Amino acid sequence: MAKKSKKQQQSGAGGTPATVALTAAGTPFTTHAYEHDPASPSYGEAAAEALGVSPDRVFKTLVADVDGNLTVAVVPVAGSLDLKALASAVGGKRAAMADPAAAERTTGYVRGGISPLGQRKRLPTVLDASAQAHETICVSAGRRGLEVELSPKDLAVLTRALFAAIGRP
Asked: How far is the CA of 165 from the CAs of 39, 74, 83, 86, in angstroms?
């Protein structure tokens, strides 16, 4: 597992908007780089395997359209997003996965590398409640092949996320 030193984190060397946001906030985190396989059917599960981390601690960032508003959902890679639960969590009626081009344009990241942190436009964010069972979780650091590990509480504070049961096994 490749980790960046604290000095690299502070200097922003090789940084992404996500790591820059974490550093600016003074939030403790660790980056983990791995060899990304573009042919992998599941980027998140491939990340968990490459990092040697349980898939229930690696979370994927999904962008959904809830009643016409883009919303970020952060769920374990081992499961899937419950769109009805996401809509309910944010007081909406209907949710569907967002158009990939709209998600990329709004967040500033490419699909498979969307981070809940450092997005171009701050979107409402919901973090699956299962994250609270872990001291730290991993989420995309803003590009394929790079994860950031931090506490779920810190992630929720930085993204103004609410915790809700939005994931399905």
From this structure: 30, 11, 11, 8
CA angle 4, 157, 136 (to 5 degrees): 45
Q: How far is CA 58 from the centre of its chain?
A: 9
Mind listing the pLDDT tens digit for each residue in 108-152?
999 889 999 999 999 999 999 999 999 999 999 999 899 999 999
| In contact, 75 and 128? CB cutoff 8 Å | yes
**Which tens digit of pLDDT belongs to each residue from 154-165?**
999 999 999 999
Contact of 159 with 125, CB cutoff 8 Å: yes
Q: State the DSSP H helix or E strand holding residue 126, giving kind and residue range, or none if neither.
A: strand 125-128
DSSP secondary structure of 23-67: HHHT---EEEE----TT-S-HHHHHHHHHT--TTTBEEEEEEEET
pTM reported for the whole predicted model: 0.89
CA dist., res. 136 & res. 126, Å (int):
17
Say if strands 167-168 and 59-66 run parallel, antiparallel, or are unpaired: unpaired
Mean pLDDT of 87-91: 98
